[in-house]
Amino acid sequence: MAHKLSIQNGIAEVVCGSNQTPWHNLGTVVAGLMTAKEALEKARLAWEVAGMPVTVNGNVLPFPNADKRGETWQGITRQDTGACLGIMRGQYECIQNAQAFQFFDNLIGQGEAVYDTAGALRGGKQVWLLAKIDGIKKINGDDHKTYGLMITSHDGSYALQVQYVVERVVCANTLSIALSGATNTCKVRHTRNWKNGEAEAARVLNLGEHYFKQVQISLEGMNEQMLNPDQMAEFTNLLLPARNGDDDKASTRTKNIRSEIAGLFERGAGNLGKSRWDAFQAVSDYADHNMTIRGENSTRLESSLQGAAATMKQNAYDILTNEDIMGNLMARKFRPVPVGKIEPTADFGIEPHNPFLALLNNKN
Predict the structure, then answer these.
(1) Structural Rg of the chain based on CA atoms
(2) The pTM is what?
């Protein structure tokens, strides 16, 4: 699948720190971490955007049902290339890359060199900045790295959002799950008063230690709850139900995905095939590395953040931490699948190729 990196004049608009191999062998490499200003410059993201009137036959195109202010459409245009990145309504406020980086730095770095990667996708329509947060956290005996991520857009596909991400080092699975009482994401709309969102973003990010602690407690609790292979199979049936409600008539694709996740339960990196933790990591492994991402406007970056992969991982977490659901699941009589009817659709040893994971690991 295409990497979707923004390429201008033959150079990728991306930078990778710590002397790591650039994403897809494209972009700029630097030693160590960077300040937000350095990341902006070295990723070649210092360009600006502006809203330009959208005209038809020389007439400015009005926004449908516009109020008395005479609101019109505007084309969000890169000032260095003249490329139109998106068509937005008149009240949409451009947030410059430098402003977004400064917004994030006020929350995370405050002028310090803590940023690992930065870049743009699709000609500059989406832009991100990734910060390393000090410390390795042990969860169920495995090392986990913690990151702060900022992502914004110039085509309306994303608000300016900041969030925490946890990565399991042994298999590069990423976790950015919603926990009860432990928020990890804040979104700021592209409006005139967008800077007012800094207080809420700061509140969310100041809860980071609480969030990471709750993640640790929750996931370690999963490791104490055992699942046998039959129960794991029932879990995959619940996670991926047949569309028509008749499990005997589930599609071949659904059965293949269930089989692949069940295999990762035992054979995924770091998994033992014994607990809810292994079940959750099997789903994360599949979602991050092997899931088919459909649609030419989709990338694994977006899927991992708030698309199909993120939804699958969140659904798995919600099921595995719900004692009523799990109690009913474990009490079910297992319905075995006829031998020979299901074949895995991917090699379980496949090298991870999730672009978002590449942001974290600087892998090709």
Answers:
(1) 22
(2) 0.79
